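Example 3.
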Amino acid sequence: MSLFHGLSAFPITPSDDAGIVDTDNLGQLVARVCDAKVDSVGLLGSTGTYAYLTRAQRQRAVAAASEIVGDTPLIVGVGALRTDDVIDLAKDAQASGADALLLAPVSYTPLTQEEALTHYTAVAASTDLPICIYNNPGTTHFNFGLPLLQQLAAVPNIAAVKMPLPAGDLGEDLAQLRASLPADFAIGYSGDWGCGDALLTGADTWYSVLGGILPKQAMALTRAAQAGDADATSAQNAALEPLWALFKEHGSLRVAYAIAHHLNLTTALPPRPILPLGSEVEARVVAALGALEV
Amino acid sequence: MSLFHGLSAFPITPSDDAGIVDTDNLGQLVARVCDAKVDSVGLLGSTGTYAYLTRAQRQRAVAAASEIVGDTPLIVGVGALRTDDVIDLAKDAQASGADALLLAPVSYTPLTQEEALTHYTAVAASTDLPICIYNNPGTTHFNFGLPLLQQLAAVPNIAAVKMPLPAGDLGEDLAQLRASLPADFAIGYSGDWGCGDALLTGADTWYSVLGGILPKQAMALTRAAQAGDADATSAQNAALEPLWALFKEHGSLRVAYAIAHHLNLTTALPPRPILPLGSEVEARVVAALGALEV
């Protein structure tokens, strides 16, 4: 089985005001998700604020996590604006113990499909690690056409894609991707509120913010969906609905920090200019957690 | 008069494959625009690929340009993802000779209006220089609400805004901004194909890619529009229409590099993953220049 399967848990990366990663605290957060037997750790994803951290801090984070994960696969986000910087980050990640890479088409000048193809193939050629395409238009504002995904899937070590939830029917989206991409190419989704259903529909992977901060709850939903238990999936989604609403309204990153604060898992704040949630929204987060008996 | 007026010319920043700025070549490009008597130089704008350059390279670029500009005001882009990094860049720019700063709300995690307000006020408090708000949703994907612009315009050293061309009527857009913002707050536009008309309609400033690479042509259009000569503005716009079409289709950054290559002004390429235009599009650029007798 591909290492891109099941629940991939994306923790926050605690850092101080100057962007220095608290590697002890990060290790605690990584141990928490590994204790819950998640299928992989997604370090330095969007929730892990990779875009806001320097190369040196990202390497420190990977080294710290790799000491903790044991047999749990460690997938590391290596996105950056410049192709040469991504290649450096990929080399650092491999040298520091990553098992796989997650690569978003980070952009400032909007990229063409050809530019993304050239970027991904250059990075893939620079590493031995398998790569997951991080298709996240909400942050990168890049849209992968199906022809581009097919070209990328033909690159030997590009092995998976992390898709956003589609605007339309997820079953149709997944069926079209399955019909267009190699049989062994792993197809997963992010957007926690739709990912139980995505697994139930046959997606390989849930790339999860919830999994990084409430891994037991995310694992329970994952296993219910993987077992094909639609009723249990629906019931667990219903219990999580107050959190899903907060994720959609305020961004899952800000809510993940609020959860971590409430559970005394960190005192770190998101990197400025991102602000912590105000007290009214925090109270809603606490109420949502109370209903989950967290 | 505010230093934010007339034609602000945005040159490319020539750099090598590793992102090292060629300061001699940059100086030549800056001298070219100053020779054309532009009203200001917009260094390290989107066209100057500021987002792709390190702090050290950005400081080298500012220092090199400030030696060349003489009395022409030097406006320097200081956008970055992290607030602390922007503050460092603002201090560097001031120390290296900038006369004003241009600040875009660069984002990865989409920012709230409050986060942008906090970001701008923190940066404004860290510098003595006047700041122009760089409202560029095509690259930052942040949209400034009018209440936010009003809050920012109340900060003493936030003195100007660079607006994108509106989807609707420019005259209405400008009238609404004038009615909402202080009388001495400078309102300018970018999007070269609409900026002659913007000046004709009474905008203070044209923030111009064309001005950075074909400054004489941009100055002629600027002066015609500022004189209220609608016929001359229209005629010059018509002559530039083939270039405007290329800007819209391929991004003005890529076209600016192609123009610079054709005129033997640089051999530098845009930073990867951005690719130079293919030969077919380059031929269209050359044809467009031929019609202008450049």
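The CA atoms of residues 160 and 186 of chain B lie 4 Å apart. Chain B touches chain A at residues 17-19, 46, 49, 51-52, 81-84, 105-106, 108-112, 114-116, 118-119, 122, 138-139, 141, 251, 253, 270-275 (CB under 8 Å).
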